[in-house]
Design a protein that fits this description.
The longest helix has 29 residues, at 52-80. 31% of the residues lie in helices and 23% in strands. Helix 1 (2-21) runs antiparallel to helix 2 (52-80) and helix 9 packs parallel to helix 10 (304-315). It is of the alpha/beta class. It starts with a helix and ends in a 17-residue tail after the last strand.
Length: 505
């Protein structure tokens, strides 16, 4: 308002000056106002017959009108660029034909304390040894992985801890993910506020500083979660993410938990997703990916709720749905439906597991929050985990990544042309890097090693290698019901045919 007042005052001054110039009774020509017989000649007027008062008022009206229009334009521009609009971003990418790109999804990243200890070398954290081979499978022009926990929650890499000891990871983890080619972190889960709201804000800042965007959480205004549109090689890709929780648990959430994380009651998940997909479409999204944290550590099967919800979300316009939460791979499905006369399909991955995390170890009950009196479901889940641990401590650390090739058709629509998957296995005590005495952890693409004639040097014993082969078979079996729409990325393996017919989930 002060600026506007100054502008008005400036133009009003000019108007008064013009009024004086056009004044019929120019007092400056005869300052005494008396007839002396020797009066000075009147100044030559620019325009004769113009009334000064009327001209001044006209100038003031014109100035006010001009300032009002200018202000309206500025306000409109501000609204268009405000947080109510879905932002459009353009990540760096290699040159490809316009309308063609690849999109990769990886499971959760959730290192435990022993994994952090193993990565601590020469007084600093270095995850390159444990995660370097993931670079071969996180290859999309747009790549998304999940994160369970926070990054540098207290600043200066203080009070760090793994998933079982604080859920506060060092910034080196974010740096490694960025170096691996990850573009976005899906963080909507129960661990997003593990060290409070400020910890989440610090996490987002740490991720942004390493060119990592976030999905499903925000440090901005409440209820303005960063659902967004990303422009990839000429295609507007819509991203959305949700954390699905039981209705009773949702009612107990704080304002921060509701406003800064995309927490959604289970019975409202489909409706919320449909609403956000409509918003993305309205803002120009041509290809839509939805990430959902559902199930949990004790989830071993795809539930009817997951299937029914996925169907509703798919039919509202999602092109891919990716599940997080369960620390193991679950089923894959392609949902086909009609949109008018057009045939549409949606790729659904109910859970990609955990691409970097030691999810089977004696401390599991602490992570599952299994304290005090257990529910029947918790007790059953814990017993299942104990049986798996007793059977073999290396059967569970498996996950997968998926890469979708996307293209714009001759009719202008954008869709998946082909999908590929990569089974991932976590080698424990791999013997790689002997700078410290802790057990080593290394995530590797199974396809590189399962067909080798002899045990690869990465595996310290036959049992590890056999577990990798078992994981490969189990995960490959998931893709069997996609009618060839999802194929194995062999990553340059020996090419020998591998039998996956007996794979079990």
């Amino acid at each position: 308002m002060k600026i506007i007042s100054k502008i008005l005052g400036f133009f009003a001054g000019i108007a008064v000056s013009f009024g004086k110039i056009f004044n019929k009774d120019d007092v400056s020509a005869n300052p005494a106002g008396r007839g002396t017989g020797n009066e000075a000649r009147p100044r030559k007027r620019l325009v004769d017959g113009v009334d000064a008062d009327r001209f001044t008022k006209l100038c003031a009206i014109l100035v006010i009108g001009f300032v009002s229009v200018l202000g309206a334009l500025l306000i409109a521009a501000s609204l268009r660029s405000g947080s109510h609009q879905i932002p459009v971003e353009e990540p760096e990418q290699e040159s490809k034909p316009s309308g063609t790109f690849t999109m990769t999804f990886g499971g959760n990243v959730m290192p435990t304390q022993d994994m952090l200890d193993s990565a601590f070398v020469d007084n600093q954290y270095n995850f390159r040894n444990g995660m370097s081979e993931l670079a071969e499978v996180l290859t999309g022009d747009l790549t998304v992985v999940g994160l369970c926990g926070q990054v540098n929650a207290y600043g200066d890499n203080q009070q760090l801890g793994g998933l079982d000891a604080g859920k506060n990871y060092p910034t080196a983890l974010a740096t490694s993910l960025s170096e691996l080619g990850v573009n976005y972190i899906f963080g909507a889960n129960q661990h997003a506020l593990a060290n409070g709201y400020e910890g989440m804000c610090s996490t987002i800042s740490s991720l942004h500083a390493r060119s990592l965007g976030v999905i499903g959480m925000t440090d901005g205004e409440p209820d303005k979660l960063n659902t967004r549109i990303v422009k990839v090689n000429g295609v507007n890709v819509g991203l959305a993410g949700f954390n699905c929780i039981e209705g009773g648990d949702y009612a107990k959430l704080t304002a921060e938990q509701k406003g800064h994380i995309a927490n959604v009651p289970k019975d409202a998940l489909a409706e919320r997703a449909v609403t956000d997909i409509a918003k993305l479409k309205k803002n120009g999204a041509e290809f839509i990916a939805v990430c959902i944290n559902w199930g949990g550590l004790g989830s071993f099967v795809v539930t009817d709720f997951m299937k029914e919800t996925a169907k509703k979300i798919a039919e509202s316009g999602a092109d891919v749905i990716v599940g997080y939460g369960p620390c193991m791979t679950l089923g894959t499905e392609i949902i086909s439906y009609k949109n008018g006369d057009a045939e549409k399909e949606c790729f659904v991955f109910y859970s990609l597991g955990c691409i970097y995390g030691n999810n089977v170890y004696p401390g599991m009950p602490n992570i599952m929050n299994l304290k005090g009196v257990l529910t029947d479901a918790q007790r059953k889940a814990l017993e299942n985990e104990k049986k798996l641990i007793a059977k073999s401590k290396i059967t569970m650390p498996r996950s997968m990544t998926v890469t979708l090739s996307v293209s714009r058709g001759s009719d202008g629509t954008v869709s998946v042309t082909q999908g590929s998957y990569n089974p991932i296995f976590l080698i424990r005590n791999s013997g790689q890097g002997e700078e410290n005495a802790h057990m080593k952890y290394m995530s590797v693409p199974c396809a590189k090693y399962v067909s080798a004639e002899e045990r690869p040097a990465l595996f310290t014993d036959d049992k590890q290698w056999e577990a990798c082969q078992a994981a490969f078979k189990a995960i490959s079996a998931i893709a069997e019901n996609t009618n060839g729409r999802l194929v194995l990325n062999d990553l340059g393996s020996s090419g020998e045919e591998t039998d996956v017919s007996d794979g079990k989930i």
